[in-house]
Amino acid sequence: MLNEEITILKEIDDKEIAYDKLDTLGRLMSKKSDNWPNFLLWRNHKFINSLGSEAHCIIEIRELIAAMKVINKSLFLTYLYLLIYILLSSGVILYNKWVLSPKYFNFPFPITLTMIHMGFSGAVAFLLVRVFKVVAPVKMTFEIYATCVIPISAFFASSLWFGNTAYLHISVAFIQMLKALMPVATLIMAVLCGTDKLRWDVFLNMLLVSVGVVISSYGEIHFNVVGTLYQCTGIFAEALRLVLTQVLLQKKGLTLNPITSLYYIAPCSFAFLFVPWYFLEKTGMEVSQIQFNFWIFFSNAVCALALNFSIFLVIGRTGAVTIRVAGVLKDWILIALSTVIFPESAITGLNIIGYAIALCGVVMYNYIKVKDVKASQLPPDSLPERMTKDWRIEKKSSNLFAPDDNTNDNDTSGKVSSMSDADEEVPLMASSRLSHIGRSQLSSRDA
Predict the structure, then answer these.
(1) Where is the Sugar phosphate transporter domain (predicted)?
(2) Which secondary structure element, helix H or strand E, spans residue 296, and what is its range?
(3) CB under 8 Å to 361, separation ≥6 — which residues?
(4) Kind and range of the H or E element at 433?
(5) Per-residue pLDDT of the chain (447 residues; tens, 9 = 90+)
(6) Which phi and psi angles does 67 have, rounded to 5°?
(7) Phi and psi for 422 in degrees, rounded to 5?
(8) How far is CA 70 from the centre of its chain?
């Protein structure tokens, strides 16, 4: 039916009939998707009505039809990439838990597992940058490396280390609930670093999140202090990394895509992880009879790397709100799956109530911050001009490896969310289409 409507509309010469058909087509499109450009399409005939020129009207109508085709294709790819991201992110977390858990694969060496991920990602990034030349390396001076890459790598390695160690002590479901503290931690770090100011509305939301996490923790059947401390430490390390990345990248004007980010960050993170590995895990691996299955660790590392690229695809096609919604959906799916795959990960009613309270605070917080970001970035264009710009930009967004030279992340806490549960998120990633709300929700401590 949709294709027939488009064909009919293209052939219409009568302006008034064209308006009616455009209105019908737009309403049909808006029922197929709640994507906002589709809603604008059927309202835009009022704008066309004011143009006066019949020939100009027909041109505008045909441009809108072309825009709808682009939007439909883009919408399909967006949902596909989001689905891939959700599956990979959930899969990597569950896979890591299975590998590390003494009850299953029994490889209780989280630092080693993280080093495998970092080493594999760094090697693949090296091949893509230096051998196959998929992307060009950036101009990296010793000063930038010492003042930006090294400190960011240190906190990135720390967040992965502590976050993965938590899998040895607490369940996946409870870890996901604790991760609701991510915006609280990031706001605290942003205020301490002087990149943001505390506001009462944000403070109340953060208080609601904290209360929800406390209730959820109280309802945890297998509460473990050590595991909780590890996870919370990893959360604050990740929050500090996000704020530090914001400050240092803004100061140095450094822009890296995900591949070059891994190229510079992964080897440095590997080096930082080597120190705790030598003192904490090396001896244990020598004396214990561990099973090292090459295909298990290789597939695990491939999944972690694939997650990186899925993050890249999602960031290239969506905004912070869409990513946030996908993150909430993934959280609930992951909590439900973890209770099925790992029977010991039982959740209680108090767990659910506490997490729901925390999630309400997170959603309210993100709503405030997304609104602030949109208000600061919204151009003073007319409605039709804005819509035309948006769909033309969407047409160009398929070039995922194109550098983004217009990035300017000016709002730190306003660009943060609680979804910090993917795996090895690319630690230096600049994109004008992704606020820190999207970036931190795609960030990782689950190597």
Answers:
(1) 80-366
(2) helix 294-317
(3) 180, 205, 206, 207, 208, 209, 212
(4) none
(5) 445 544 554 454 454 555 555 555 555 554 444 444 444 444 455 444 544 454 555 555 566 666 666 666 777 888 888 899 899 999 999 999 999 998 889 899 999 999 999 999 999 999 999 999 988 888 888 988 999 999 999 999 999 999 999 999 999 999 999 999 998 998 899 899 888 888 888 889 899 999 999 999 988 888 999 999 999 999 999 999 989 888 887 777 777 777 888 899 999 999 999 999 999 999 888 877 777 789 999 999 999 999 878 877 787 677 656 776 777 788 888 998 999 999 878 888 999 999 999 989 888 887 887 777 767 655 544 444 444 444 444 444 333 333 334 333 333 333 333 344 434 444 444 333 333 333 444 444 444
(6) -65, -40
(7) -80, -170
(8) 24
Side-chain half-sphere CA neighbours of 399 within 13 A: 7
Q: Read off the pTM.
A: 0.71
SS3 (DSSP) at 311: helix
Residue 187: both structure tokens together: 């706001």
Distances (CA, A) of 146 to 6, 157, 178, 272: 57, 16, 33, 14
Contact between residue 324 and residue 419 where contact means Cβ atoms under 8 Å apart = yes
> What is the per-residue DSSP string for 72-106?
HHHHHHHHHHHHHHHHHHHHHHHHHHHHH-TTTT-
DSSP 132: S
Read off the tokens for 73: 């294709």
Among residues 129, 170, 378, 115, the alpha carbon closest in space to that of 256 is found at 129
A 10 A CB-CB count for 376 gives 10
Q: Which residue has tokens 């050590």?
A: 226
Comparing CA positions, the residue from 445, 401, 447, 391 lying closest to residue 421 is 445
Q: How far apart are CA 247 and CA 269, in angstroms?
A: 19
| Chain-centre distance for alpha carbon 189 | 20
At residue 351, the 3 state secondary structure works out as helix
Q: SS3 for 121?
A: helix
Rg (CA), the chain: 24
Q: At what angle do helices 54-100 and 2-11 cross, to 10 degrees?
A: 150
Helix (H, G, I), strand (E, B) or coil at 444: strand
